[in-house]
Specification:
mainly alpha, about 50% helix, about 180 residues, 8 helices
Length: about 180
Amino acid sequence: MSKPYSLDLRSRVVAAVETEGLSRNQAAARFGVAVSTAVHWVRRYRSTGTVEPSKIGGYKPRTLQGEHADWLIARCREKDFTISLLVEELLAIRGVKVDRHSVWAFLHAEGLSFKKSLFAKEQDRPDVARRREQWRKYQGRIDASRLVFIDETWAKTNMAPLRGWGARRVSESLCKRRGGSHS
């Protein structure tokens, strides 16, 4: 993307037209800019009183703002999720169509992260814990010569995702920069 002309050049072209009485064509020829550029700068100066350029790009407002952002933050604090799941929920529940990168950028900007456990949460349930203890108790009674080894190296058995996004404790230094207290 190109950069705007310097304020010095803009000011000299407008000054040549406004104070020296040159036409826009003459000022454009003197300073080596297009006539349409000189016309635009003089028009901007007369309507706004400044020759500063307007913002380049970034005119599209972000979709995940306001109530959608509040909902997404609350949703992330609820339970486990993936970015793909959030994209689907935003469309199904909120009627907001966004891509994965938009959700990722929002979560990253908000400092939300979620690290998933390598162990199933079911292991903490009393009934599952009891059965696991029974298995450990009787494991030594199994005759190893009767066991058959099945090579399943071609199959991926560790299907638990290693990474994800969600609420994260805000560090003290980050809170001080934001002017708040840490949690």
